[in-house]
Amino acid sequence: MIQPLAGIRVCSLAINLPGPLAAARLVALGATMVKIEPPGGDPLAAASPAWYAELHSRIDVRTLDLKAPAAREQLYAVLAAADLLITASRPAALARLGLAWPALQARYPALSQVAIVGHAGSQADQPGHDLTYQAAADLLDPPHLPRALLADSAGAERAVSTALALLLARGRSGAGGYAEVALAAVAWDFAAPLRHGLTRPGGLLGGGLPSYGLYRAADGWLALAALEQAFQQQLSRTLDLPALTQEALAAVFRTRPAAEWAAWAADHGLPLVVLPGMPPEA
């Protein structure tokens, strides 16, 4: 893999998600990473030890109590050699530690910071987590909890792209820069297909197009995504269905096991996959 960030040194103070996701991605791009964790560690390590280990396999993790002056001096030594700082604390908490951006900028003029926050600007100290960000963006289906941490995962990617932009700008000007990544705003951005009607019930990608949906097979569920006209024509021709209605497709897919449909789709170049672990009547 291309390592465009080789030689770039990053310090992360970000525990939980999405900080570790962003850190792992930057390391995969070639950056060297030092992560400072509090004495209690990163809660992700307790919640998902295997995932924590995967994300931190190439990161130098150090434990420091930044409330202690001696520990802050150790952090300052790391920052003096760093190109980029990633934080995921509320601004008020960073200020109490003497790590507000104006102080950092004065002390390390070439350092850039990506501050992952819940809400933008004056609301950055407002608490929240992935669930609340998704809820505010109308991405939940009560009473079901989301199966993907969309705001955190998308926020990590946004943090990475923001970091790359800051590093690029520093390469041109020589001066470090600061940028916030607000997870609530990221969730709002990723809810655009819903707001614009594409994924709402009855929308084109929300059940309104029969060739784009979920169907029961004889022993499981199938995801069919024949969105383009060429796929729809191929589907109609190979299934001998003059009209691709939900009723007609549901009836034909129930006649064979899911694995047979997957093989059939591969043979005919159609976008269809089997949903793993789903019982037939779920």
The coarse silhouette is: elongated
Helix count from the secondary structure assignment: 14
Based on helices, strands and strand pairing, what is the structural class? alpha/beta
Biggest sheet architecture = 6 strands, parallel
Mean pLDDT: 96
Q: Gap between N and C termini, in Å?
A: 41 Å
Name of the CATH class of the largest domain: Alpha Beta
Order of helices and strands: EHEHHEHEHHEHHEHHHEEHHHE
Domains counted in the coordinates: how many? 2
User: How many strand elements?
Assistant: 9
Oligomeric state of the chains present here: single chain
Rg calculated over all Cα atoms: 24 Å
Question: What proportion of the residues form beta strands (DSSP E)?
Answer: 5-15%
Task: Please identify which CATH superfamily of the largest domain we are dealing with.
Answer: Crotonobetainyl-coa:carnitine coa-transferase, domain 1
Strand order of the largest sheet: 3-2-1-4-5-6
Low-pLDDT runs of 5+ residues are: none
Give an overview of the whole structure.
44% of the residues lie in helices and 15% in strands. The chain has 282 residues and is an alpha/beta fold. It has two domains: 9-193, Rossmann fold (3-Layer(aba) Sandwich), CATH 3.40.50; 204-274, 2-Layer Sandwich (formyl-coa transferase, domain 3). The strands form two sheets. It has a six-stranded parallel beta sheet, with helices on both faces. A three-stranded antiparallel beta sheet has the order 7-8-9. Strand 1 (9-12), helix 1 (19-28) and strand 2 (32-37) form a beta-alpha-beta unit. Helix 7 packs across helix 9. The longest helix has 24 residues, at 150-173. The radius of gyration is 24 Å and the shape is elongated. The model has no long low-confidence stretch (mean pLDDT 96).
